Amino acid sequence: MAVPTLRPEAAATLARGAVIPAHPLALTAERRIDERRQRALTRYYLDAGAGGIAVGVHTTQFEIRDPEHALLEPVLALAAEELDARASADVVRIAGVAGGTAQAVAEAELARDLGYDAVLVSPRVAGADERALLERARAVGEVLPVVGFYLQTAIGGPVLDRDFWREFASIPAVVAVKAAPFDRYRTLELVRGVAASGRADEIALYTGNDDAIVADLLSEFHVESPDGPRTLRFVGGLLGQWAVGTRAAVALLERAQRAMAGDAEAYRELGLVASDMVDVNQAVFDPGNDFHGVIAGVHEMLRQQGLLDGTWCLDPAEGLSPGQAAEIERVRHAYPALNDDAFIAENLEAWLA
Q: pTM for the complete prediction?
């Protein structure tokens, strides 16, 4: 069977590096999908200059797959409709897939039928060992190109070693890997594994380390490959953090690209905002409470900006931690260059139309 390939425009964007926000789920107070605001979010990301959108991922809430909600197809379809209507050909369309092999393959087939370019494979699979995760990736890779995902252990991700990532990156359908273990050592193990596969030139590295965005984008990894020493780097980000402040994120990535091309002033400017970005992330992601309010925190930022009506999650037990809303308001005002308040205010009415 032929290996699925990306559209040339999408492949070029993924390799060049892009801001890819992880799309949230807009709900009503009754915990039903708010189609108007769901569409408005997609429009915001596209108008902000995102080079791709990831839908059906952790930020979209894994519970969309539960039978009592059955929201995976509607959510993917809504985003696809907006992408068809508004996106240029070079915007990368990524759908999240989850569950065991049969479920993940079925979700990949759905994504393919809806026009998605690639799938992000969640590693959070009950009872699956590394071998099972690799076999699942191979099966999914017969349907669509695959983006790997190293998910932090705090929200259910497994610890995956260098040998795993070497084998994973050796799968011909793998086109990118998102590193989100929130751990410098594990991030390095992932990069070393990709290098050891011999396919580093074919795989784009994307940061998902929301607590180390600037550090990842400015890092060079000096690693060994079958062809000798190599220098690898993250070319972009696929991030829940970039579901907010997306236009600012586009500017940040452009600055990182200039810095890595030798622009000393851009490098200095990024050094000045690196800790500010971490401060924004701690407010939104709620690490002080073991990330309890991570999804609700994204919702709260968007609610304060007018894009969402509330912070409701499909799981009623998920919500903001005490004081988190005030923290989010604090960082919004403290770091105006890292949020999109003015941009959203200017365009909100049109996005909600």
A: 0.97
> Residue 56 has what DSSP assignment?
S
pLDDT digits (tens, 9 = 90+) for 234-243: 999 999 999 9
Which of 65, 66, 73, 69 is CA-nearest to residue 112?
73
Tens of pLDDT, residues 273-289: 999 999 999 999 999 99
CA angle 278, 281, 285 (to 5 degrees): 145
CB within 8 A of 245, min separation 6: which ones? Answer: 280, 301, 338, 339, 340
CA-CA-CA-CA torsion sign (283, 288, 293, 295): positive
Cα separation, 349 vs 313, whole angstroms:
24
Closest CA to 303 of 280, 318, 290, 284: 284
**Long-range contacts formed by 252-260: CB under 8 A, 24+ apart:** 252/213, 252/214, 252/217, 252/277, 252/338, 253/17, 253/18, 253/19, 253/217, 256/214, 256/217, 256/218, 257/17, 259/218, 260/217, 260/218, 260/233
pLDDT digits 0-9 by tens, 144-157: 999 999 988 887 88
Instruction: Kindly write down the DSSP assignment for every residue of 102-125, as one continuous string.
Output: HHHHHHHHHHHHTT-SEEEEP---
Answer for the pair 277, 334: CB distance below 8 angstroms, yes or no: no
Whether the Cβ atoms of residue 24 and residue 60 lie closer than 8 Å to each other: yes
In 3-state terms, what secondary structure has residue 318?
coil
259-267 long-range contacts (CB < 8 A, ≥24 apart) are 259/218, 260/217, 260/218, 260/233, 267/218
Phi, psi of 179 (to 5 degrees): -100, 110
At 98, give phi and psi (nearest 5°).
-145, 175
Contact predicate 242/302, CB 8 Å: no
* Local structure of 162: helix, strand or coil: helix
User: pLDDT tens-digit profile of 152-171?
Assistant: 888 788 899 999 999 999 99
